[in-house]
Amino acid sequence: MGIVNCTPDSFYTGIGRLPHTRTLEKQVLGHLQGGAAIIDIGGCSTRPYAEAVNPEEEWRRVRLGLRAAQRAIQTWGQEALLSVDTFHAEVARRAIEEFGVGMINDVTGGLYDAAMYALIAEKRVHYVAMHMRGTPQTMMTLTDYTDVAKEVAEALRERTTKMHEAGIEDWQITLDPGFGFAKTLEQEYLLLDGLDQVVALGYPVLAGISRKSMITAALHLDKHDCLPAMTALHWELWCKGVAIERVHDVREARQVLEMYNFYEQTIAKG
Description:
With 270 residues, the chain is α/β, with parallel strands linked by helices. It has one domain (2-269): Dihydropteroate synthase-like (TIM Barrel). The protein is built from eleven helices and eight strands. The strands form two sheets. Strands 1-2-3-4-5-6 form a six-stranded parallel β-sheet. Strands 7-8 form a two-stranded parallel sheet. Strand 5 (126-130), helix 6 and strand 6 (173-176) form a beta-alpha-beta unit. Helix 3 (55-76) packs parallel to helix 4 (89-99), helix 6 crosses helix 7 and helix 7 (185-193) packs across helix 9 (213-219).
């Protein structure tokens, strides 16, 4: 999953500050050429302490990104799944109805907007439910876990129950443990170690660790200088059973996946 941030305040500013359509289109095309199967477009930064954006402004940004993505996919000549990173049901609805978006990536897992589950059930699109506590403004004060992996898995299990009650089917659901959201640095790695508990819920798992502080803070690196360390974590995530990785650096992450697949196939042959 290639990240396209249509925001002026992305935490990874080298990619997040995208002022016009041609730049966005070029970035999407680069993701596709690098091997992305999903393009994830966001119009509202969810980094810690990010300012809230109203749905109309978010939609203005997302629409710009979706137009650029459609043109890039047409140029590329191959299909790709369009995803929108939003927790506003109205933004999700417009993206689905106006652009045929096939996936909604909700960092709140449906906790922010009570209308989200009904929309996903009605439109029958894929839905990524991420684990999060609070809001971007408060989440880093809500890290009081006893067993972070166990509690994240249990919270996501409870979310799937609510989704089923709303009419969302299993095939629509992907779960995200929420690296970088309401977890301390130590908890990030305890969650990674116990990620099998989330995988064991039986749904595809998406993980997003790209350029995040679990790498940069651990090694005291700049976000633009952490690719080797990030590559090591990509490998570990595939080993843990993750199905989708959400990344800024698609070509590099794709190489890790292909190397991992080659390794697994070689071992299986004996």
